[in-house]
Amino acid sequence: MRILIAAAGSRGDIAPYTGLGAALRRAGHDVALATTDTFAPLVQAAGLEFRALPADPAGRGGGAGRRELVRAAAAFVTDLGQGFADATAEGADLLLLSTTTAPLGWHLAEATGIPSLGVYLQPTAPTGDFPPVVTGAGSLGRLGNRVAGRFALRMADRVYTRAVTELRQRLGLPPLSPSAMRRRRERADWPVLHGFSTALVPRPADWRPGLEVVGTWWPHHDPAAQLPPQLEDFLRSGPRPVLITFGSMAAGEGERLSEIAVRALRRAGLRGILQTGSAGLAAESDDVRTIGDVPHALLFPRLAAVVHHAGVGTTAAALRAAVPAVTVPVTADQPFWARRLAAIGAAPDPVPFAELTAERLADALGRAVRQPEYTEAAARGALHMAAEDGAGLTLKAVEQLALK
């Protein structure tokens, strides 16, 4: 079967699909991953076909107001829809759609007759269990959470209005609003598999049929890969260090964040590793090292704790390694995942990015590293995750869909 996975966003929004795609390829399927040019090497290293999607011209930083951000998002998804149509035209027997690409992929599936399946990294369906993940808000109570969840979907549909209008015109389909298509998919119990662990988010009992949580899709990495020799030497030269990373967040803030990180490590009496990332973290001394990209699966089990922005992938990787976390959420779904780690006891309360200081970071690090309950909770989470097989359950769903 020719399977086309379509995803857009930052590295954390793409990397899980390289592992999922590699698992599907090992099962005998031809797998292509459509995403932006930046991630072509990531896709090809996993042995998958790369198909290009337009990049987001707005990026992820800047001081634009809410209206400007919404306008930029609408322009991006309009371009994304046209690029997705081009990628689909290259051939596919099944579309696997991410949270971002599903509102476009539904229309392509209608026009082409290609079946589709949701493969989401975040829970988007309204539930009383928690508020919508993109708002960053705390719980509003069960009724309030459901109302807020429905409102969040309506706001997302507004962003896709122009994109859907132009895509349906291109495909020769009659006019249909994004919200009308979403309701149509919901009435049909369109299947969505969620690639995160039930250790963090158990499946809400009030979700409709067709929505399942299958477990994490782990990014592909070369099984022969090893950590750089200089990093190995540092890891072996003393007590377990702390990793501090902001992933694709905080571009342009490297100097300030590096200073905060080093001061916090010294104040807490810990060795540290700074991961450069988009922020450009950097510092070198006897007890601090700077690294670029390395596989989380190799590094995280060697650490005392991970300070991170609470992106879904880093959150899962730290928990899988049975390592406590200190979360510094920046935006989008990150406050949600930070709260989930704290709720299961694997991290102290989040330190919001806007409130980050060396003193607060040092205090949180001291508790995460030296109070055993955080490591014990992380170990329980890791044991739970070890029993899950997100890629295997997705493969079963794909093959069942192929039989229909």
Describe the model.
It is a single chain. The protein folds into two domains: 2-216 and 388-403, Glycogen Phosphorylase B (Rossmann fold, 3-Layer(aba) Sandwich), CATH 3.40.50.2000; 229-386, 3-Layer(aba) Sandwich (Rossmann fold). 46% of the residues lie in helices and 12% in strands. The chain contains 15 helices and twelve strands. A seven-stranded parallel sheet has the order 3-2-1-4-5-6-7, with helices on both faces. A five-stranded parallel sheet has the order 10-9-8-11-12, with helices on both faces. Strand 1 (2-6), helix 1 and strand 2 (30-36) form a beta-alpha-beta unit. The relative contact order is 0.12. The model is unreliable at 58-63 (pLDDT under 50).
Write a concise synopsis of the structure shown.
The protein is an alpha/beta fold. The protein contains 15 helices and twelve strands. It has two domains: 2-216 and 388-403, Glycogen Phosphorylase B (Rossmann fold); 229-386, Glycogen Phosphorylase B (Rossmann fold, 3-Layer(aba) Sandwich), CATH 3.40.50.
List the helices and strands and how they pair.
Elements: E1 2-6, H1 11-26, E2 30-36, H2 40-45, E3 49-53, H3 66-89, E4 94-97, H4 102-112, E5 116-120, H5 141-159, H6 161-171, H7 178-187, E6 192-194, E7 211-213, H8 229-236, E8 242-244, H9 254-268, E9 272-275, E10 288-291, H10 296-299, E11 305-308, H11 312-320, E12 325-327, H12 334-343, H13 358-370, H14 372-386, H15 390-403
Parallel strand pairs: 1-2, 1-4, 2-3, 4-5, 5-6, 6-7, 8-9, 8-11, 9-10, 11-12
Helix pairs in contact: 1-15, 3-6, 4-6, 9-13, 13-14
